[in-house]
Amino acid sequence: MNKDNIKKNDPSSVDLPTTQPLTSNQGTTIADDFNTLKSGTRGPSLLEDFLFREKIFHFDHERIPERVVHARGAGAHGIFRLTDPIPQFSKADFLSQAGAETDVFVRFSTVVGSRGSTDLARDVRGFAIKFYTSEGIFDLVGNNIPVFFIQDAINFPDLVHAVKPEERNEIPQAASAHNTFWDFASLMPETAHMVMWLMSDRAIPRSYRMMQGFGVNTYKLYNAQGESFFVKFHLKPKLGVHSVVWDEAQKISGRNPDFHRQDLWEAIENGDFPEWELGVQILTDEQEQALDFDILDATKVIPEELIPIQYIGTLQLNRNPDNYFAETEQVAFHPGHVVPGIDFSDDPLLQGRLFSYLDTQLSRLGSSNFHELPINKPKNPTHNFRRDGAMRHDIPTEAANYNPHSAPGGCPYLSNLMSGGKGFDSVPAEMEGRKVRKRSETFGDHFSQTATFYNSQTEIGKKHIQDAFSFELGKVTREEIRSRYLGILSVVNKDLARIVADRLGLVVPDGLSKETVQTASQIFENYPALDKIKLGFTYPSLSMEYHCDFDTIKTRKIAAILSEGFDIQELKQMQSRIKAEGAVLDIISDRYGEIISATGEVVKVDYTLVTMDSVLYDALYVVGGDASQEKLATIKKAVCYVDDALKHNKAIAIGGNSNVMVLASDLRLVESDKAVVKIRTASDIEMFIQLVALHRNWQRELQNDLL
């Protein structure tokens, strides 16, 4: 194929700068497409910004009917229980009344893929909560990563266009490993921090039940005395934060693309209700000013070592939806759904979301009355003069449809006038500054926190980031994009850049490319010098291992593979202990039906080696019995069970005295592996349970080349 034709047809291959002016849909030339119009560089975005409104309006209506982003999801009902009220910070009833219980609906999702994509794509996970409070709906619309790709909402359409399947051929689905995403990321250095999180194991969680949640944006709380505070919302899973490995994720996508959705559904159906602790990071104005980064910048995280998280309650999911479409698909979240005691900061990403989410519900659900759908309807009564529109459900009985009125029955009152200040009121704030399309200089450091995140990872965490960059950039077909992003990595961490460059067969560039600097200079009037980057910090809380729970195997799934002639007594001992720990032990063989043990007793098979794969389990138990293991050693699929569990760093138990499965599999290569247990006594079973609780034996991967 002619290289000139490739360049001509590839929308990401246009040289910078172009010769054609950027215009609005009305033909108006645009001087700045990177910043919303604000009142001062750190002030709120202005409603009169017709260029932003046109851009985001068009983007919000591009796809019908599924969500443009977060299309694939799973949801559940539950309850939030407040254990430590914070009336000193917020007058919201559900945050200030001791013992308050609030109904919730939570929707988890992937961002990039369509409704038909896989759960195990390398992607950000949405974590959105609808609180049905006594004062109305509060929607906390967050992710499982605390930062975001961009600083200003005006760039959101470009980000999503770049990361979605390429426009020419709709390939690849649910993946960022392609030209257009990395072209965008290499030209927008503000994405570097989020990209580093995306390349970490956070992007391939073990389950929705084992991932953190973050509000991402900075909000404000205000109390009954009118005092206000900055706040970040956090959710910590009680099962700990765990992931799968990339090879495993790819195989799960083929074996069970609904892996996360099924995991959540089955856990709730089995009464293993997922739980998270809800926490808040609260800052005064003085604390905010003392930080060396801007908390209005959504690409920044506040390490909990700097501002501790105060955990105030427990979120539990305890009921599955009755109908996926009516509830999980029709649920409509909006960051603008807040209650008295919660308000917005001037974060320009949040400010744009306040417009975009409401608008997109009209496109998805077809009516301004989407709030009347049962899943979206508040639990407390509503009284207002919104009327008519398509699909109106409520039938108004009031005598008048305007405010104020003196018709019989009375007119709804303004709550602050009649109920002692209980209504919603925006936090008063001084506003000054010229109307500008300009980014605050305090948003200009894109790399200090990026480097801090990488430096804070454990050895295995760093290895997985190196592997992820190598895979993703290895899928990029344009060498100049690869080299351009290596320039960003060279600023963040020289060793990381060198490792990835060696694998790509490229030379590490000497800093940022001229194209990257050119784009940054368009956004920032004074793009900060790179020599001001702070590279020496580490915070343990930024690593996944800091948040792991290694005390339980509750809800974990363990595969027990066997064939005729297995050891029934050993199996019963293992079954008893696994059940007592709240985990699941599935019996797997080469066929369905009943399998006869060495002593003539039988067990019923749950799944076959063909219908359930090793990657769908957290650990493996090869049941003892010479005849059973000799038969399994001749079945290639059974040997693959062992090999996959081994290379995915899982705990493995080998029963009986036979060595045949060790010799038939890759176990012979790692006989000293501490996470491979030979079951001889009851204490060996206890050791196996402890190893399963550790989730993975990462030393195996660091010491062996099994993939």
TrEMBL record:
Binding site for heme: 67, 107, 156, 353, 357, 364
InterPro entries for the chain: Catalase (IPR018028), Catalase_AS (IPR024708), Catalase_clade2 (IPR024712), Catalase_clade2_helical (IPR043156), Catalase_core (IPR011614), Catalase_haem_BS (IPR002226), Catalase_immune_responsive (IPR010582), Catalase_large_C (IPR041399)
CDD domains, per database record: GATase1_catalase
Molecular function terms, GO-annotated: catalase activity; heme binding; metal ion binding
GO cellular component: cytosol
Domain Catalase core: 23-411
Region (Disordered): 1-27
Catalytic activity entry: 2 H2O2 = O2 + 2 H2O
Keywords from the named record: Heme, Hydrogen peroxide, Iron, Metal-binding, Oxidoreductase, Peroxidase
EC number of the protein: 1.11.1.6
Cross-link position per record: 3'-histidyl-3-tyrosine (His-Tyr): 334-357
GO biological process assignments: hydrogen peroxide catabolic process; response to oxidative stress
Cross-referenced SMART domains: Catalase
UniProt-listed PROSITE patterns: CATALASE_1 (PS00437), CATALASE_2 (PS00438), CATALASE_3 (PS51402)
Keyword Oxidoreductase among UniProt keywords: yes
Domain of life: Bacteria
Co-factor requirement: heme
Active site (UniProt): 70, 143
UniProt entry tagged with the keyword Cytoplasm: no
Extent of Basic and acidic residues compositional bias: 1-10
Biased composition (Polar residues): 11-27
Family, per entry: Belongs to the catalase family. HPII subfamily.
Role summary: Decomposes hydrogen peroxide into water and oxygen; serves to protect cells from the toxic effects of hydrogen peroxide.
The protein's name: Catalase
Species whose genome carries this gene: Sphingobacterium alkalisoli
